[in-house]
Each structure stands twice: as structure tokens, then as C-alpha cells.
């Protein structure tokens, strides 16, 4: 299979959820293609690992921001760091959590709020800061939604509600900010072979991978599958794509 190469030399990307999985991979790919990365994560050790890999192994430029995406000050720090590198051009809001795996009537208010804070409020606060930073010169924002942003699913009410909200923010921001040359899109993968899927399946990775049996391609997505879609949306190849959501469901 052919490898797609992009040129992000001199550009700056902000990634939330950069400490692992898809967020980490997109951070690495962006750096491999010449860009600098602001890596936002709430896990100090894992976020630092992402940054050190980029700076040492890829000879790139990455800066860690340790903080909670539900705290506006996290994004204040991230934008400040981006400005020291020339200003923010791109953002990938990938922070998320598996949330409570319970029917709605058994879902506690604190666990529901925690899910909203991480996925929905975190995306809102991120976009609020990112749009303000991009308005002068334009930019691109990609949000992680997931297929649950389009459907309902048993025992995943909190996650579905948050994902639907992120998709609504994505479409609305695209309409509001197109005049400022800011494109806003979403990626909507189904099951992805990451640590998050394993946690959602109670630690049973094989059970997570078995979800892929119901897809046309006969497998779940890899982090590389999703990262490839994100890189495309960030690039000039998608210069006329905004307000869209790319479904990565393997043909379900």
C-alpha cells in the first residue's frame, strides 16, 4: 500500500488526548511531516513519553501541556505554548474516556457529568480557545466523535450523548467560522484497537476485536486507520471539506 506524505513544515498542531492511542499517533505523524506539536494530556508520564519520542526519535519539536481539558487554563497554557512556536494552525481534539457502561436508569449523575466534562466540555473549551487563536490567519480543527455520535447504543447513553454533542459543535463551528478560513470536521470511527476499547470491554481485548466480525472488512479499525483520516482532514487535500464527519466503521 502507498504511504501518503504531507508537508506541515513551520505549522503547529495542538492535540488533546496526546498521551496514548490515536492522539499520540497523530502527534507523531504530524511531527514526521515537519510540524511542531503541542501535546495535551492529563497523565504526566505518558504525555511526556509522547513528547520525548517526538523530540528524540523523530528529531521533531513537541511541547507537553499537563492538564484537564475541562479546565480552561489548560488551553490557555496550550495556546501560549503554540504562540512561542509561531502560532496555532491546527487542532485535533481527541481526549475521551469510556464512561459508565450502564443503562441510563443506573447511570449516576457524577459519572454522567464526568463523561460530559471529558468529551463534550473539553471539546467545547478546546474549540473556543483554538478558534480565537486561528481567526486572524485561518486554520483547521478536527474533532473525535465516533460512530456513537450518529446512533444510540445500549449501556452507552453518556458516551452517545457526549458524542452527539461534539458532532453538533463541529457542524455549528464550521458554519460560523468558514468566513474566517477555519475548517472544522470530525472523524467517526467504530471500534478501534486501542487501550480504550480494551477498557470498555472489561479488559478483554479479544472481545473487542470480535466486534470487527460484523463489519464488511471483517476487522476493527487500527489507530493508523483513524490517524490517516485525521491527517487527510488537516491537510490541503481536504481544503473544501468542512462541517463533515468521516465514518470509519469498516462497512457496517
Topology record:
Elements: E1 12-16, H1 21-32, E2 36-41, H2 44-57, E3 61-66, H3 72-84, E4 90-93, H4 109-134, E5 139-144, H5 157-177, E6 182-189, H6 195-200, H7 205-209, H8 223-234, E7 245-248
Parallel strand pairs: 1-2, 1-4, 2-3, 4-5, 5-6, 6-7
Helix pairs in contact: 1-2, 1-8, 3-4, 4-5
Summarize the structure in words.
It is a single chain. The protein has 252 residues and is an alpha/beta fold. The protein has a single domain (12-191, 222-242), classed as Rossmann fold, CATH 3.40.50.720. It has eight helices and seven strands, in the order βαβαβαβαβαβαααβ. The chain has helices at 21-32, 44-57, 72-84, 109-134, 157-177, 195-200, 205-209, 223-234; strands spanning 12-16, 36-41, 61-66, 90-93, 139-144, 182-189, 245-248. Helix 1 packs parallel to helix 2. The radius of gyration is 17 Å and the shape is globular.
The number of domains is 1
Q: Strands of the largest sheet, in order across it? A: 3-2-1-4-5-6-7
Distance between the termini: 23 Å
**Radius of gyration over all CA atoms, rounded:** 17 Å
What would CATH call the architecture? 3-Layer(aba) Sandwich
| N-to-C order of helices and strands | EHEHEHEHEHEHHHE
The CATH fourth-level homologous superfamily: NAD(P)-binding Rossmann-like Domain
Which percent band covers the strand fraction?
A: 15-25%
User: How much helicity do the residues have?
Assistant: 40-55%
Count of alpha/pi helices: 8
Given helix and strand content, the structural type is: alpha/beta
Mass-distribution shape: globular
Number of strands: 7
Amino acid at each position: 500500500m502507498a504511504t501518503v506524505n504531507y508537508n506541515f513544515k513551520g505549522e503547529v498542531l495542538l492535540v488533546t488526548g496526546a498521551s496514548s492511542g490515536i492522539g499520540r499517533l497523530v502527534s507523531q505523524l504530524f511531527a514526521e511531516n515537519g510540524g511542531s506539536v503541542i501535546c495535551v494530556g492529563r497523565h504526566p508520564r505518558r504525555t511526556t513519553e509522547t513528547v520525548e519520542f517526538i523530540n528524540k526519535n523523530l528529531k521533531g519539536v513537541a511541547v507537553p501541556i499537563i492538564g484537564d481539558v475541562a479546565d480552561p487554563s489548560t488551553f490557555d497554557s496550550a495556546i501560549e505554548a503554540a504562540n512561542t512556536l509561531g502560532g496555532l494552525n491546527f487542532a485535533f481534539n481527541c481526549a475521551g474516556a469510556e464512561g459508565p457502561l450502564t443503562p441510563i436508569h443506573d447511570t449516576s449523575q457524577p459519572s454522567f457529568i464526568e463523561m460530559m466534562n471529558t468529551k463534550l466540555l473539553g471539546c467545547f473549551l478546546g474549540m473556543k480557545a483554538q478558534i480565537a487563536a486561528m481567526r486572524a490567519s485561518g486554520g483547521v480543527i478536527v474533532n473525535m466523535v465516533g460512530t456513537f455520535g450518529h446512533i444510540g447504543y445500549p449501556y452507552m447513553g453518556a458516551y452517545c450523548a457526549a458524542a452527539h454533542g461534539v458532532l453538533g459543535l463541529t457542524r455549528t463551528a464550521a458554519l460560523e467560522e468558514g468566513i474566517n478560513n477555519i475548517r472544522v470536521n470530525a472523524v467517526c470511527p467504530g471500534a478501534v484497537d486501542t487501550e480504550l476499547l480494551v477498557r470498555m470491554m472489561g479488559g478483554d481485548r479479544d472481545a473487542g476485536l470480535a466486534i470487527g466480525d460484523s463489519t464488511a472488512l471483517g476487522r476493527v479499525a487500527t489507530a493508523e486507520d483513524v490517524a490517516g483520516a485525521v491527517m487527510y482532514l488537516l491537510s490541503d487535500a481536504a481544503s473544501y471539506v468542512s462541517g463533515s464527519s468521516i465514518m470509519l466503521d469498516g462497512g457496517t
